[in-house]
Specification:
Oligomer: single chain
Structural class: alpha+beta
Radius of gyration: 20 Å
CATH topology of the largest domain: Thrombin, subunit H
CATH class of the largest domain: Mainly Beta
Order of helices and strands: EEEEEEHEEEHEE
Length: about 210
C-alpha cells in the first residue's frame, strides 16, 4: 500500500460514513490512502495510535492511524462540542487496503463521470453501484518534464509512463522511476528497473494488467 498511496487523492464521501476510533463514534469528513479527517464529540489525544473502523458497501475497513492534529471546530446546537481531527494511516490490516482503494477509486470515477456528463449537457449518472475494480486504473504519464498521476477507466498505456489497475499495488521500481526526474525515463540499460506493465487481453476477452 505504501507505493501507491500517492496515486489516489483525498475524497469527500458522497454519503455520510459513520465509524469509530476505538470506542469513540466518529464521522469521516474526507479520506485518502494516506490519512483521514474525522469529526467527533469526545477529544482524542494527539500523538497516540488508534484503530479507525467503518463500513463501506457492506464491507468492513480497518486502519491503524496516528493522531497528528485535533482542534475544537464548533459547538452544535445541542451544546456538544465538535472536534475535527487529522489521522495519518499507518496500516490497513485484514484485507482492508484493497477495499479502501476501491472506496477512493469509486468516488474519483464518479466525479469523472459527472464531469463528462456535464461537458455533454447530460444529467449526472444516478447509478451508485460501485464499479468492479478491474475497470479502474491509475496512470503515470510524463508530460514534457512533469509526471502526471490520474485515476481513469482507460487501460491504455501512455507513450511515456505506465498504467496499472487501482486494485493492484504499483511496483516499487516503477514508483521510484515516476518519482525521479524526467531524465530517469527511459531507464538506461544498466538500470535495475522492471519493465512497465501493459494491459493485455486474455482468451476469454477480459483485460488484465501484465508486468
Amino acid at each position: 500500500m505504501d507505493d501507491d498511496r500517492r496515486h489516489l487523492g483525498r475524497i469527500t464521501p458522497r454519503a455520510p460514513i459513520e465509524g469509530r476510533v476505538g470506542r469513540t463514534p466518529v464521522r469521516i469528513l474526507d479520506i485518502s490512502l494516506r490519512g483521514s479527517r474525522i469529526a467527533h464529540e469526545d477529544p482524542l489525544p494527539v500523538g497516540e495510535t488508534c484503530l479507525l473502523t467503518f463500513k463501506w458497501d457492506d464491507r468492513s475497513i480497518e486502519a491503524w492511524c496516528k493522531i497528528v492534529r485535533s482542534r475544537l471546530h464548533a459547538f452544535a446546537r445541542s451544546g456538544h462540542p465538535e472536534f475535527h481531527t487529522g489521522l495519518r494511516i499507518v496500516e490497513a490490516p485484514n484485507g482492508s487496503a484493497p477495499v479502501l482503494r476501491q472506496l477512493i477509486s469509486w468516488h474519483v470515477t464518479r466525479a469523472l463521470d459527472e464531469q463528462k456528463a456535464d461537458a455533454h449537457g447530460e444529467p449526472p449518472p444516478t447509478d451508485l453501484e460501485p464499479p468492479p475494480m478491474e475497470n479502474v486504473f491509475v496512470r503515470c504519464e510524463l508530460v514534457r518534464t512533469t509526471w502526471r498521476r490520474v485515476t481513469t477507466s482507460d487501460p491504455q498505456q501512455p507513450a511515456v509512463g505506465f498504467t496499472v489497475r487501482a486494485s493492484e499495488p504499483v511496483p516499487s521500481g516503477l514508483m521510484r522511476m515516476a518519482s525521479a526526474s524526467s531524465s530517469g525515463w527511459p531507464p538506461s540499460a544498466s538500470a535495475a528497473m522492471p519493465p512497465p506493465p501493459s494491459a493485455v487481453t486474455s482468451r476469454n476477452g477480459n483485460s488484465r494488467t501484465a508486468y
